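Q&A FORM
Asked by: J.P.
Topic: structure of Trichome birefringence-like N-terminal domain-containing protein

PROVIDED:
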Amino acid sequence: MPPARSPAAGVRRRKAFVPLMLLLPLVLLILFLIFPPRSIPAVSNAALRPQQTCDYAGGGWVPDASADSQLRYDHTCKEIFKGWNCIANGKRNGRALLRWRWKPAGCELLPRLDPHQFLERHRNTNIGFVGDSLNRNMFASLVCMLRGVSGEVRKWRPAGADRGFTFLHYNLTLSYHRTNLLVRYGRWSASPDGGPLESLGYKQGYRVDVDIPDQAWADATSFHDVLIFNTGHWWWAPSKFDPIQSPMVFFEKGMPIIPPLLPPEGLDLALKHMIAFVNKAIRPNGIKFFRTQSPRHFEGGDWNEGGSCQRDQPLSSKEVKDFFSVDNNGTNTEVRLVNQHLMKALEQSTFRVLNVTHMSEFRADAHPSTTGGKKHDDCMHWCLPGPTDTWNDLLAANLAATERELA
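REPLIED BY: S.T.
REPLY: Here is the structure written out as tokens.
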């Protein structure tokens, strides 16, 4: 045991301590006069906030000379639709267009999707792409990346999909559900007995039921754990839905909408209903993305007016502005017009936005062009390998961020 201190010792210490207490203010005053305090910068509110997640939507492409020597897959991947296989089809910059990496503003390069890590992280998971051929473009890119490291797959059509694969070792299923408008549509002809549309002079067109999901994906919401939706191109396709010869006529609850809607208004209503349908039907803890619109790069006219896309380099920021300015109302403004409707519909929803638009607007060099096998330049779909690989890099980054949020 430590030796006990006597009460007298405590008293002596207290008596010695009193003069020191009296001298302390004088000492501090002298030090203040000799060493005046320096101003301390105020801590900003930003410094007190946790570091924000990188916003991958804005930025620019930077050269990466090593990229084409480290292909994640090549022209031999059988899932590449023939018209998109730019290397096999001999597009002059088929490999050179890969020598670019997306660098978000104020952040490091967007990480490349690691196929091994993706397969391992998403064991026992079903991932579905629902939309038009641009979502098939993205689906094929991801399948090719994963098949490069895991070739044991089962090919089938889960939940009514157009195509699908299960990576057997990981029980990871990817599928593509083809739908042009998200909602059900088909030919419509005037009834000899007449009706509201007939009384307005409508003779034929396409019936679009804005509140009924296309059967191609109606069961996908209860099957998949992750869903990636898109729509847009077909709503702005007069070659498919001629406003005079074959207009869209919109129905809701089985009845024609009167007065009739124009396609942009129909899109708004369809998005409203489809968002509500997915929210109700999706699996518990399901993750849902809506991919923003993919841009076209026609120059000199639209696809049926001799338009082409012959560039070998990405566009500059100024060229992007000129190409897609809504004020100019040019050939390619569809992308930003569609996005206005998408963002409005998604604003109050629980969908996560997969924003690929701006990064893709630069890539006028990466379409199949004349090598796509069509009678006209294909300036809408993307070469594979190509920019849609970067879309999947973005998907992987968003999935990882979502998992951290939910953990």
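FOLLOW-UP: The chain has a mean pLDDT of 87.
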